């Protein structure tokens, strides 16, 4: 069952934000993308991994690799991709190896990062390529290639894509003066 959804729900404060170790300014851009998954078990659709609640999850169904995709209308600069995983609750459903691929569409996706985790409990972040602060693309796809204990289906509790605050403003419009900056975009 392939599905698409545009996330329009307001954030619920039940789930802590992913850690910000380097203290860079950032914002979640989940609501700006069109989300899709390779498959979903009835009652455990992709809406559950975008609802900001750690007790719900998306569950894949079928053969691996499973994937989660988010496509943006415009090219996006992403600085962090976070997944909320819980081995204690999900056991063999917990992904252990996930590959992040980035491109402008499905025809030019390139592997960008591989995340390998052992019994995760909470937020985990994809490492960006060495010397890179941002990854640019229209399509971001996470391939789940292995689960703990050789599990077949996967549980992902939450996903967050973080971008710099100025991800949509061209450098010309990054004003230093508050009076000018307040008129830089339409509400």
Task: Write a concise synopsis of the structure shown.
The protein has helices at about 85-90, 180; strands at about 5, 25-30, 35, 60, 65-80, 80-85, 95-105, 110-115, 120-125, 135-145, 155, 160-165.
Give the arrangement of secondary structure elements:
Layout: E1 3-6, E2 27-28, E3 34-37, E4 58-59, E5 66-78, E6 80-86, H1 87-90, E7 95-103, E8 110-116, E9 121-125, E10 135-147, E11 155-156, E12 158-163, H2 178-181
Antiparallel strand pairs: 1-3, 2-12, 3-5, 4-11, 5-10, 6-9, 6-12, 7-8, 7-10
Helix content: under 10%
The CATH architecture is Sandwich
CATH top level is Mainly Beta
Low-pLDDT runs: 8-13
Side-by-side strand order of the widest sheet: 1-3-5-10-7-8
Please report the number of helical segments.
2
Whole-Å distance between the termini?
36 Å
Report the CATH superfamily: Galactose-binding domain-like
Order of helices and strands: EEEEEEHEEEEEEH
Would you give the CATH topology?
A: Jelly Rolls
Total strand segments: 12
β-sheet strand percentage: 35-45%
Secondary structural class: mainly beta
Domain DOC: 5-187
Biased composition (Polar residues): 1-10
Keywords: Cell cycle, Cell division, Mitosis, Ubl conjugation pathway
Organism: Capsaspora owczarzaki (strain ATCC 30864)
């Amino acid at each position: 069952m392939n599905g698409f959804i545009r996330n329009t729900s307001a954030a619920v404060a039940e789930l802590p934000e992913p850690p910000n170790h380097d203290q860079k300014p950032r914002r979640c851009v989940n609501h700006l993308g069109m989300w899709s998954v390779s498959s979903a078990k009835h009652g455990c659709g992709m809406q559950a991994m975008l609802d900001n609640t750690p007790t719900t999850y998306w569950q894949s169904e079928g053969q691996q690799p499973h994937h989660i995709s988010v496509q943006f209308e415009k090219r996006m600069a992403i600085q962090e991709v976070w997944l909320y995983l819980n081995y204690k609750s999900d056991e063999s459903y917990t992904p252990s190896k996930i590959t992040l691929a980035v491109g402008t569409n499905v025809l030019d996706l390139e592997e960008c990062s591989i995340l390998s985790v052992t019994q995760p409990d909470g937020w985990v972040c994809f490492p960006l390529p060495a010397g890179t602060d941002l990854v640019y693309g229209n399509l971001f796809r996470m391939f789940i290639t292995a689960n703990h204990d050789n599990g077949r289906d996967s549980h992902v509790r939450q996903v967050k894509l973080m971008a710099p605050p100025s991800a949509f403003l061209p450098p010309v419009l990054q004003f230093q003066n508050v009076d000018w900056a307040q008129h830089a975009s339409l509400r």
